[in-house]
Amino acid sequence: MLRVENLSGPLSAPVIHHVSLAVPSGATHLVIGPIHAGKSMLLRHIVGLEQPLSGRIYLEGARIDDAIDSETQLRRLRSRLGVVFEGSALISRISAVENVELPLLEHSRCSPAEARDTARELLAEVGMADAGNASADDLPRSGSRRIAIARALALRPAVLLLDEPTQGLDAGAAHEIDDLLGELQQRHGFGILIFSHEVRHAFGLATEIYVMADGTIIARGDRDELASSDNDVVRQLLHRRGTAA
Amino acid sequence: MTLSTPVASPPQSPNRSTQARFISRGQLTARALYWLGWLAFSRRSVVTSGVEREVYALGIGALRLVASASLLVGLIAIFQVATQLAPYGAEPVSPRVVTWFAARELGPVVVAMLLVARSSAAIAGELASMNVTGEIDALRAMGLDPVKYLVSPKLLAVIIVLPALTLISDALILGGVWVGSTVFLGYSTDRFVSQIREAFLTRDLGVGIGKSIVFALIIAVIASDEGLSADRRASAIGEAATRAVVYSLILVLGADTFVNAIFYFIPGLI
User: In chain B, which ranges are continuous DSSP H helix?
Assistant: First the structure.
């Protein structure tokens, strides 16, 4: 389980303020908000890329914010988080299968041959069995997003974090990614936290939605609760559904 | 072994102070050398294949440039030296002077300059662009050290490539000197060879190779540091590449001056 309590940060120049949320195992939650609302900064705090000003981040009971100065502890906690960054962020000069085996080689005791086999199995699981030798640079957007998901799942994380997972994809490819995430979650039971400005996610997998604006959570609830919200930002966001879905 | 620099160290501002740059480059050098040691015993294919890729890109890719530039430098040097020595009747020893200078100075410095121009900007630009696209953050988020996976293969490749290219450059500068002295100055090949034998000493070659290893370290560390510390915006890529070239050039020439000053003030050293 991932829990964020009253988080503000980063330390140098805070852009998120008093954010709290929790993602239980097997649940899919969504942080939605306009661009520059602080969503990506919240994700960076959760994976320990930014030092918070105050607040706490727990992953399976261990504090991530406390581990930021301890390389060993941070590495261990990060191995329990799968992250798909905006735009996939695959390492461009290596192949798809090498991208997926990177975390395996770093964090597990498996041999290079075992890591390669596991990476190929993961690629097959996300429907990219034939793309193993392709350079990350040569993959189409939907393909690179699938490879990034396979890489994020390599260490069987407790929580999968996805930053704008369907940005830049056409409607068909975006729905395929949603379906894939649903299937993988059912199979492996991890929690999912999606950070997106696309309203369509609110009407997909997510059971709990946090609306973020100006670095704070301004509303939370399921889609029916938010639909009846009288907050102007929430209403404006949900109103866009017809055009964004 | 645990290094003190946190894996999560964020990109620093390109406007950081000289002291901050010095500390950052010191830490980067320590980390890169540590991972180089690790690389020697690694069975992990991703990093070692990275070294092969970098050797090809930085070394084989630069071969034509280094070869043609070295030949021309040899020709230019023999014409210049012959012109300067002619009034003193010392023109016949021109090949000897150039040969000595080529091994100690021209070879390593010319190759370093060419590598700075060709590869320093490329390394800094590549790492800066990985910063912009989130690839560096992705590595950190997976608990992977970017220095291990990105910098150490480049550092090892440059340390292999620069001395190797220096040896090739030395030979081709001599080729240029031979063409200049036989075709244009009218000396015989026998005379050229005898002067080379007298002037071309192993210790001069050793000094040149030693310098090239120092230059390699400077080029790889400066370029990598500028790339990794670039901001996450598109225009930062070009800025990082420019800074990498400027700082690398100054530091390579500074290091060369320092080494030459040592040899001048301590005559019996080598």
Answer: 18-41, 45-58, 63-85, 94-101, 107-115, 121-132, 135-141, 146, 152-179, 189-199, 202-228, 235-265
